[in-house]
Every structure is written in C-alpha cells, then in structure tokens.
C-alpha cells in the first residue's frame, strides 16, 4: 500500500503520496510563512487530506526539525515551529485526517529515505549528513535507524572537531556544524574576502552579502578565494567524517543539503582528509558521495517510516527500524 | 546452558566458563609470553579444554584485540598476535576442542559484557570506553552491538577531537586515544613535570619514568601537577564523550580500563565538559560512570557472544546482537 510522507519545514510544508517502490504519486506544498497563526496543525492536516485525493493510503509520517519523542509522537522542541510542540500529533492529526499518524525527526527521515530509496538502497550501514543552514545527520547501522534512547541521537552536526573553534548555535565551540555548514561557508567567505580583497570573492563582498551559492559559482569560475573557502570547508567536513568512518564502518556516506551543491569542491578535500585520518579497512571501503534524492529525501523517508493502524510500517521495509 | 569466553590478550589468555546469569563458574589463565612460538592456537585450545572441566558448555567465543572479520571468524590483524591472523579460528579451534567457536573484537566483547551483566544491564543504549595503553570502545544502540559493515566499527578512540593535536599510534593527529589514554597521561605527566619541577610529580620524574598509576597516587596525595594532568585528561575525554552523547543518546557511558582507576579525577572533569558541550536532552539523561565488571568484562562479554551449533547465542541474550 502507499503511505504519505510530510516534510514540515521552516519554509514549506510538503506532503507526498509515496508507493512501496519510493515513487511519488502525488505531492502538495504550502509555504509555511503563509500559514495563519495557530493554524499549523490544521494546515498540515489539510495538506494530507488534499494530497491523499483518492489514493489508498496506509499511514502518515510527519518529518519535523528539532527534538522529537518518537515513542509519544510528540515534538518536544522545534526552533521555528513552536506551535506544534508538546501536542500529541498522532491524536490531533489522526482526528482530522482519519489516518494513522506518527512523527519523526526530519534528518532521520531524510537518512531513512536515502537508505530505502537513494544512495544507501543497496547497503546496511549508511551515514547521511546534510549541509544546510546547520548540519544534520542520520545513521543507519545494521539496518537499524539510530534514534538513541530518547530519539535525540544522530546529531552528527554536534560532534566537536576543534575544541577552540567558532561558537556553534548549540552553545558549544567547534562543532562540525560551526565549521562545515552553509552558515560556516558564508562566515569564512567574509573572512577570506577581507584577506583577499582583489579576488572575485573580495570584490563581491564589498557590494553585497555573499551567499553560499555565490561561493560555489565563483569557485566554478576559478576564483582562488572561493576555492580556498570550499577547500577548507571540505577539510573540516572530512575531519568529522573520518570519525564517523571509524565509529560506524559504513559502506556509504551520503552528503546532502544546499551546501552539498558545491559538490566536488567540498567532497574532494573531505575524501582526502578521510584517507589521511580514518583507519583501514573502514576508510578503504567507504564511498563518500552526494545524496541522490535531493530535497525529496524528507517526504520519501517519512513515508517509509509511516505506520499503519497495526503499528507495522506501511511500505514494509525489508530492513529494520527501531 | 553455560558458555566459555576467552580473552586473548597481549599479556594473558584468560578463559572462563560463564553461566546464563553472568556468573564465572571456572577460570584459567596463561601468560601469553610463556606460549612457545607457533603454539598460540594450541594454547588457547588447551585453556578451553582445561576450563571446561566437566561443565556443560554450549559454545566458545574468543575476544581478540585488533581487526576481526566476525562473519568469517577470522582475525585479520592483531598487533601482538600475528600468529592467529588469517586462520579460520572456528575450524582450527573447533577441531581441537569439539566445541562451536566464534571470534569477536575484544573491546566489542567487553562492551557486550558490560551491557549484559554490568553497567549497562538495565538499558538499551550503552557506550563503553576503555582507557588503557590505547582507547578502545564499543557501542550498543537499540540493543544492537554496533560492529559496522566489516566488523571494524566502534573505534571510539579514533575520532579526531583536536586536528592539530599529538600524533596517534594510528597515524592520525589528535585522536581521543592520543589525548585520553594511559599513554597520553604518561606523556602529559612528563611535560607537566618539567613545567613544575618542584611538584611531587616533577621530583619523581627526575628519579624514574612516571607511570599512569603514579599520577593517580600523587593526585590522591594532593599534588597539584598530578591533579592538573588528570584534569586535562578528563577534559579531553569529555570532549570526545560529548560527541558520543549527541550521536548515540545513550542512557549510560561506562568507562573502564587501567586509566579509569583514576576515577573521579578524570570522570569529574569529563562530566563537566559533557555538560558544557553536549545538547539537551541527551546530556541531561546520560550517566557517565565507571564500568562495573573490571577486567572480567572481556570473558563475560565473549561468553555472552558465544554461539552454539545452531548459530544461536548460548546464553540467550534478551537483546539483539547483529
């Protein structure tokens, strides 16, 4: 049977009907900004009802950024979505849609999407990391989605890789997120721009705020300053990934998120650092590659995590979810 | 039924008959140094036969340091035990003992011992870390022993926590092992001794080589230099543990190994660092404590990982091993 995955993000709510094979049969999107106050639950329910549109559907899973108590189907903390905190979403949403509804962390859902249908579909051990405003992650080990005892595990962006490094949004210093996120690229771009004012990056920075995508574009055009920023970012990413290689011994590390569009400018130096720092045979085996599902990994993974009335996974994973 | 666990170490071979409740019914030990060349397999087999001594036993598991291919019951690489590399130990040992024999990494076995019978016996998520000459580790997440795709996962000692830090035995710089092992304590003790020559540590270092246990003893006597060494070690340990807290969201982190005898001198600063660096709610939940089985964790864990002729775990774990 099909399932519905919903990606509840800070900018959009995307709901999709997904088949057992990971095909998106129908999809709707609402900009989160357009949702009137106190109407978030209602809007999500509307998206679900609308996307269902006659399809036979066995269950729904919401992928939400922040801290999730999966066992209670509750969002404990979500930075931009306070409205849905501390609500039994399974009950609230179930009442409105007549469907079985569960809740999952968005990065875990995206990791599960890549595992079931994307870069990890042929393996049992996958590390997924997403480089966006922050750095999110999800781990599948021995076919098991690593949630941790409270569902707050898999926070790959918040391992310390430079104890005296820049302050991270989480309060710590030198987290992977503070050194390899899109935000970190922009910060470092400002610094390098002022060190190399005659570079294309330096000249742009005088005119306006430099975005991550500017750095990628300038690197593609061969600008030395932009190349340096991405090379350093890749090096930091690689320091973090080397640790994950030693800890998880995964077949694949899939890198997604906006900043992953810098592609080999970041992944090349990251791979080099992993070869320098990780141990054999783990480092010899691991494939570090771009995630293959793009922004759809969230709805696909959420759908694959949806459970029916009987508590079983609707899309019937061949591998284990705990 | 009972099982036999064997801890095949660089200094001793310890074999024990263990009951389903984790009770050691019989134990024998041989110093590894006394084993004649090319007699290691034979000696292990003798230890097994001797310890069996009339007990009903369903299977044997050998815990070996180094890289293990668990699926093939083979030691791929073991720093001080080259003799047993690349041998089908299940076949060689089975022939000699008439028992079903499997092989496991020693730190994973010790972690499993703490999980089944020790500091982690009441939880589903345990991080075990052993501070000895090196830093070893093992992780149980959702009741699953994390081996990774080749059985070389769980290498917690080789995550980078200070990219420009001291060189590690593995070739990398700034691994947790390079900063928080017994070896690291001795190295740092030499440095602090020369900075503070009038401290008790400084005076001892002039007379002879300072060992880890000297540092603990001097700290207990209140020597400032020794206290500083252990406080710094605990801080580095805490930086590593904070990452594991965010990644694994475990209920318990159990710290074992020789250097853990420094107890609160190391664990106190480690806990403080975890509170500074890890995220809620994971950091609020986790208990960081001394491992409870001591050096017996290896034989106990190995016994609990022994499989019978039918491939089932002899001591019948209630939790999952993959």
From TrEMBL, chains A, B:
PROSITE patterns: ROK
Family: Belongs to the ROK (NagC/XylR) family.
Official protein name in the record: ROK family protein
